[in-house]
Write a structure and sequence with these properties.
By secondary structure, the protein is of the alpha/beta class. The chain folds into 2 domains: 7-130, Response regulator (Rossmann fold); 134-231, Arc Repressor Mutant, subunit A, CATH 1.10.10.10. 44% of the residues lie in helices and 21% in strands. The protein has a 5-stranded parallel beta sheet with strand order 2-1-3-4-5, sandwiched between helices. A hairpin with a 2-residue loop joins strand 8 (147-150) and strand 9. The two termini are 36 Å apart.
């Protein structure tokens, strides 16, 4: 079972378990980040975009229920959250779902099942996101009609440029690395580096050059951002 590049935050205070989960998910092609406690998890979620959270309930500081609540209510993030716990009462499960969890996995669990559930949730979430209109500043992209406008003016883009723009708008205001762009667009058949650079050059000419404010920014040696200058 494979999925386009996905970044998962593992929130688990037991280092050995966190490392085992991370190693297994990385072997399957995912990128992982770690938080040893709830406060760190909330801080990381406020600074980075994750495709999913693997969230333990019993942790020092604030527990997984409170992390889930803050992610949903305060940060207004809707990425899938899979909770891990040894507590299997109905009340525990209902509390998790009420706080915004998408799934619940009892310890001990099989790594393959965790991976399968994550992939399923991430695919479903991406499908829902792909059907929603995206907006960054005055650029609007309707994925249903593949129509792009800026300041109300229609912009005609090639299929590859539409893919690039969709990814940059989805991740905005966060940075998207060159590697992530190439992997999402071409998978394992990555062309030479000049191909992506050429498409971005043409995209910039169409969405930035005719307008007063540039929104597509190159971060030298790292990647690209689509955002207002104040978010650089």
């Amino acid at each position: 079972m494979k999925i386009n590049p996905a970044t998962v935050l593992i929130v688990e205070d037991h280092q050995d378990l966190a490392a085992n989960i991370g190693d297994f998910l990385e072997a399957g092609g995912m990128t992982v980040d770690f938080a040893p406690d709830g406060l760190t998890a909330v801080q990381l979620c406020s600074q980075h975009r994750y495709d999913a959270l693997v969230l333990d309930i019993m942790m020092p500081g604030i527990d997984g229920y409170e992390v889930c609540r803050r992610v949903r209510e305060e940060l207004q993030l809707d990425m899938p959250i899979v909770m891990l716990t040894a507590r299997d009462t109905l009340d525990d499960k209902l509390t998790g779902f009420e706080r915004g969890a998408d799934d619940y996995l009892l310890k001990p669990f099989e790594m393959k099942e965790l991976e399968a559930r994550l992939i399923s949730h991430i695919r479903r979430h991406r499908g829902e996101m792909d059907s929603k209109s995206l907006q960054v500043a005055d650029i609007v992209f309707d994925p249903k009609t593949m129509r792009v406008t800026r300041a109300g003016a229609p912009i005609r883009l090639s299929p590859i440029m539409l893919q690039i723009l969709r990814i940059l708008m989805r991740e905005s205001p966060n940075l998207v690395t060159r590697e992530k762009l190439e992997a999402e667009i071409w998978g394992e058949d990555t062309p030479d580096s000049d191909t992506l650079r050429s498409h971005l050059y043409n995209l910039r000419k169409l969405i930035d050059k005719p307008f007063q404010q540039n929104l597509l920014h190159t971060i030298p040696g790292i990647g690209y951002k689509l955002c207002d200058e104040q978010d650089l």
